[in-house]
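Morning!

As promised:
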Amino acid sequence: MKSKDELITSPRAQGQRAGLDLEQILEAARSFRPEDLSLSALALKLKVDRKALSYYVKDRKSLFQLLAIEAFNGHFSGLGVAEAVDWQSALKAYAETFVSGIISLGAFAEHIWFGDPLTMISLDPVEALFAKLKEAGFSDEDSVRLVTMLSTVCLGHARDILTYRNNKSQSRPIALRGALDKLAATQYENLHRIIELGVNTYSVEQLDFEMEIILNSASRLLAAK
Amino acid sequence: MKSKDELITSPRAQGQRAGLDLEQILEAARSFRPEDLSLSALALKLKVDRKALSYYVKDRKSLFQLLAIEAFNGHFSGLGVAEAVDWQSALKAYAETFVSGIISLGAFAEHIWFGDPLTMISLDPVEALFAKLKEAGFSDEDSVRLVTMLSTVCLGHARDILTYRNNKSQSRPIALRGALDKLAATQYENLHRIIELGVNTYSVEQLDFEMEIILNSASRLLAAK
């Protein structure tokens, strides 16, 4: 993902069109359903020329990225991480703020996954987390690798929560049951047993499990030093 | 992601248009660059009516998903998992085949992340993995949660490898350096130190690290029983 400055076509300091600024544009954009949002529809709503808009926003994709950055930054603050009493709580606080940040994007979250370095938009939580890990005695290399893994895990979990909300169902077990129903009942005995068990991997228990996996092994990394 | 049957508009057994079948369609589709691929362009190439195509493939999105399934299944076999000597090797074999499966999708991988239960397309590797985990003594709930976590980690790593190939650069450190360069050098001392260290989280060392985190904690889950 590009920085906010790169997404805006011209620096704001160079002069702004009378009666129109980026905040107004984003506010109006947020009132649209994502599927209805285009630069033309937005210009119509703001009662400005399409060209006046493109002075601020290059294209539809940039507009979606700007909306995603705004929404994410509103939720992703470094406060919880900086206030954590130890490195374990710091990692947990980072995960919580990261997941709630992605979830707040709703339909825009889809524009994030391949859009890239999301964590670099807000520097404060990442700086606070690296400070806590160094203080605890982690090597910088282990810290980078841990934070990378944690971000992947959080992004994946947020995706599952959003998918569950959209579909009102758990898509993995539904797909699995659909596949098994087409086959003889004697095949795939492990998958049959698993599907009957009905473990919900779309709820907070899954994130808690994944955090425990990371925290336990991270403790061992520290102890081995 | 829907099953292959759901993506095809009509069951093939009901009758096929003379001179056209799904394999032919997919083979022709694979010769396009993804950005140039549409049902109309495909119909033109196959010298058939657009309607004859829609007998097999509902829309462009379904076509992309079919291509992704075909490519993924070609790489995601259960062999390595079933032949593994212990549960650790089984998890590693699953990760390897999963990552190489996603990477083989190339530009189509983007259609996977929010497209859903990818792992359910090929049942064999998942069945083999659950069998190995049960044999080792894992509870079924722990197995489901472990395999879910592993799939997320593999998908995230495959995305990084593809991003690195596309951009010929590591986008996270580039974005971070860009952000830091705009700020006073005295701010964010931890991030400055981290960026100078230059750890590459886009290479196989990152997946190895993440596998070790998972395997170490999984051993403790077993030992605690």
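Confidence is low (pLDDT under 50) at residues 1-6, 9-18 of chain B.

Hope this helps with the figure draft.
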